[in-house]
Each structure stands twice: as C-alpha cells, then as structure tokens.
Amino acid sequence: MSEIELVPRRTIGGIIAVWVLAAIAGTVVGLFVPAEWRAAWLTVSLGACLIVAFAVQLWYGRSQGFTERVAASVLGALLVLGVLSMGFALAAVVTG
To answer: Where are its TM segments located (predicted)?
Structure first.
C-alpha cells in the first residue's frame, strides 16, 4: 500500500525545468547548426525534451497527474522551440 502524502511536493519546478532545457537547446541549435539542418535538429531537441520530461516526472514519484505534467512539459517545450524557430527564421529572412 502507498502512504497518503500530507504535503505533496510541488511539481511545477520540473515542468519549468523542461521549458528551460528547450530554450537552451533551441538557442544552441539556432546558433550552431546550419539553416538547412535546423528543423531536423529542433525535432531532435524536442524528442530529448520529451525523454527528460518523462524522467523528471518519474523522479518525483507521484502517479497523480503524471500524464498532465508530462503533457504540460512537452507542450511548453514545443511552444518554446516554435517561438525560437520562428525568431531564427525571421532573422534569416531579414539578413538575407
């Protein structure tokens, strides 16, 4: 049997950590990868964020709301990478 947690640990930190990882990965990809390979590497970094999201949420050890927390982590990472991708695409258009 599992014990009831009187004061559960806060899980928002794990979600935000995945978003920060996505921002770092997107910035690294945007700065160091050639433009023709950028979309592929952003997809790889999103996959890495998915794996990290699973690992972080499993590390918390709470089954309640697991899928919602993983979904929030991955959706936020997708939005962060999308905004960074759009920024790098606009910068490529402006600079010619």
So the answer is: 12-33, 39-60, 72-94
